[in-house]
Automatic annotation (TrEMBL):
Name of this protein: Phenol 2-monooxygenase P2 subunit
The family this protein is said to belong to: Belongs to the TmoD/XamoD family.
Classification via InterPro entries: MOase_MmoB_DmpM, mOase_MmoB_DmpM_sf
Species per Swiss-Prot/TrEMBL record: Kribbella koreensis
Pfam families xref list: MmoB_DmpM
Length: 94
């Protein structure tokens, strides 16, 4: 039996200051799809989306606190199954 992973998603404001964040999320989630809508970026992936602080900091060129993610996010589909100083994971809990 083949199982299909349920899509999770994050909607971010389409703003210049969020581009390094989106690039970091893409780098850590190669299967990620991004839809560009007016003022909004819809990021989706099967199973989970991982956001690593170190990858975001590498894109930004300075320190980044995972709490700053709240300034960029508009909505999401899934659960924040992990959110600490180093990583944010959005997935579905079964």
């Amino acid at each position: 039996m083949t199982t299909t992973l349920r899509q999770v998603g994050i909607d971010l404001q389409d703003a210049e200051e969020n581009r390094p964040l989106v690039d970091a999320i893409k780098a850590d989630n190669p299967e990620l799809t991004i839809r560009h809508l007016p003022g909004l970026l819809k990021l989706q992936s099967a199973g989970r989306i991982v956001i690593n602080r170190e990858t975001v900091e590498a894109q930004l060129g300075h320190e980044w606190d995972t709490g700053e993610f709240q300034l960029a996010i508009v909505s999401y589909a899934g659960n924040f199954t992990e959110w600490d100083d180093d990583q944010i994971i959005v997935s579905w809990e079964h």
